[in-house]
Amino acid sequence: MAETDEAATTLGYEQARDELIDVVRRLEAGGTTLEESLALWERGEELAKVCRRWLDGARARLDASLAEGS
């Protein structure tokens, strides 16, 4: 659990997105064991959450900026 929190604070959006793309490619390519596939899937879920947090934060900042301009 702490590892997920650490990833969220240390990875930038682009880093998380790029790693997520790599995870998806590896899963789609196949050739991994079930255990490796599960580990990749779990990492992908963590990375997707990191990306979502960044995007949600960006949306909130944009909304706040637009509200100030009104």
TrEMBL record:
- State its location(s): Cytoplasm
Q: Which UniProt keywords apply?
A: Cytoplasm, Exonuclease, Hydrolase, Nuclease
InterPro entries reported for this sequence: Exonuc_VII_S, Exonuc_VII_ssu_sf
Domain of life from the UniProt record: Bacteria
EC number(s) for this protein? 3.1.11.6
Pfam families noted in UniProt = Exonuc_VII_S (PF02609)
**Catalysed reactions listed for this entry:** Exonucleolytic cleavage in either 5'- to 3'- or 3'- to 5'-direction to yield nucleoside 5'-phosphates
Assembly behavior: Heterooligomer composed of large and small subunits.
What does the function comment of this entry state? Bidirectionally degrades single-stranded DNA into large acid-insoluble oligonucleotides, which are then degraded further into small acid-soluble oligonucleotides.
User: According to its UniProt record, which protein family does this protein belong to?
Assistant: Belongs to the XseB family.
This chain belongs to the protein called Exodeoxyribonuclease 7 small subunit
UniProt organism field:
Streptomyces chryseus
Q: Encoded by which gene? A: xseB
